[in-house]
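queue> holo job accepted (alpha-D-psicofuranose)
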Amino acid sequence: MSSMFTSQDLDALADQSIELPSWAFGNSGTRFRVFPQAGVPRDPFEKVADAAKVHELTGLAPIVALHIPWDLVEDFAALRRYAEDLGMTLGTINSNTFQDDAYKLGSLTHSDRRIRQQAIDHHFQCIDVMGQTGSRDLKIWLADGTNYPGQDDIRGRQDRLADSLAKIYQRLGEDQRLVLEYKFFEPAFYHTDVPDWGTAYAHVEALGERALVCLDTGHHAPGTNIEFIVAQLLRLGKLGAFDFNSRFYADDDLIVGAADPFQLFRILVEVIRGGGFGSTSGVSFMLDQCHNIEKKIPGQIRSVLNVQEMTARALLLDRAALGSAQDAGDVLAANDVLMDAFYTDVRPALAEWRASRGLPANPMAAYAADGYQERIELERVGGAQAGWGA
Ligand code: PSV
Ligand code: MN
Ligand code: MN
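queue> job finished
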């Protein structure tokens, strides 16, 4: 084990839980092609079972986020019991106002009151589901926006959005939260109604204490300093959730930490610095990914391990030495301290950490040897799409 890795750092890692998106287990693809895979889940119960396998082998992922209506079931109490029997809980409920014809020109921002109400009612339905699943968070990502200058009144859309969100927020129970996700483009290309953290912040600030911002790491312009946004939202007490993934170009939804592990490290340094780490921090660590060409379950295992690995490195940061160098104005020494933590190979220490908790030292190898993949490929015939294009 690395001599820099103290037992206190190991304790902090035990308090990390990552929320898996149900849709990561279904077939997905790009707008060019969905490549179907054998063994993908046929219903939400099987998605939960796959998520439980990720948790069993990593000890990191006890929560599954659902997407409505992709994960609509007749009996959510039964789904909840099924999850709990597998040691899992049902997490964030994600709404969906981006697949109905009615929402072509917008949902919560639409100029037609009836369409706005339809979108609000959908969120009421999601809140009902939350009551049954025991979920804390309602996550709202909107596809709303316009493609052409002049297409609609962008100021009027903000006003309508504020009004719709207020109606949804009022419907939440006392222990429930609204988490608003921003995205700078796509599917609308001229303007997006919640394009950036500032707009999301303005809306959630107006709503109240239990309204927070969701930061999806793939939803920024190239070159954006995401860790600065993390620091700012934590400072303002308004960071509610992450949607982790990685991107080379746009909203690629690739495995978190694959494209830029250093960026993930820098984000986690700010998370820890700002009090956003751990089960009582109020910040949920969700993945929002699609595994289009790789197998889904090992894709999720790799993802949670990447988050843990960069968290461990961020925990290694010698904050006292960093603070001294910063106070002394020693630019290069401060940078050295940060890079020392980033360049530390924590993998052997993490293998030991897992073994000491009765987990496989190498979860990827354990999954390959487990037989689960072979079993689901035989048993599950006619698996479903993740939801995209379904
Ligand atoms: C679309 O960009 C998106 O990936 C958002 O990030 C949502 O979180 C996700 O879909 C699921 O609705
Ligand atoms: Mn997202
Ligand atoms: Mn996205």
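queue> The chain has a mean pLDDT of 96.
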